[in-house]
Amino acid sequence: MSLRHTSLLITTALLAACASTTPQPDGRWQSGDNDDKPPLELELKAGRLSLHGGCNRLFGTARVENGVLVVDQLASTMMACDPVSMARERELSQLLQSRPPVRRDGDRLLLGQPGQQLVLRQQADLSAAPTRLIYVAAERQPCSGVARMMCLQVRDDKNQPWQLHYGEIEGFKPEPGIAYRLRIKEVKVANPPADAPSVRWVLDMVLEQELVRS
């Protein structure tokens, strides 16, 4: 076999391998705002997948092959949530295990069959931002900022008193009556206005949630 023939075979094999595997859409992705449901939060990184839809977190190994998302060893945390959230979680689990088509379109990730696609938007890379663990109370409390409003109650430790948080946590939509433990990113704000905070809080992960009965 000639050197030229051997080189041609290697080139053909490399092209076939490249054609069979779509570049991995690594990053953080989130669904749009929805008043009825919390946003979906999807993270793909180094062959690992994590998806949170408001109840439990689904996770496993993942790769993209021939335009479909292949998820192996899918597992879930085991928190009990309301029936609507649990039903949504089952649907998401079935979707991930069905090898759904996946396609990146600019800053959007399209997951699922046309007409029934999840549309997720890429989130900023906050990997270098400092991380903080906080608890969030099940109910807001009245507070005064620029105007009267309802503030989140937060604390770093269960033994600490609750503190009012004058602002929101980006990407986090708490449900009344549910207490949370979150991992957040603290992002510095360059040249903030005089009446605005110098740090943004951005949701990184919901670690725990608990239904608090009144």
From TrEMBL:
Residues spanning the signal sequence: 1-16
Keywords for this protein: Signal
UniProt keyword annotation of Signal present: yes
Domain DUF306 positions: 33-116
Keyword Signal: yes
Location of the DUF4377 domain: 135-209
Pfam families documented for this protein: DUF4377, META
UniProt xrefs under PANTHER family: HEAT SHOCK PROTEIN HSLJ
Name recorded for this polypeptide: META and DUF4377 domain-containing protein
Species the sequence originates in: Vogesella facilis
Organism taxonomic ancestry: Bacteria, Pseudomonadati, Pseudomonadota, Betaproteobacteria, Neisseriales
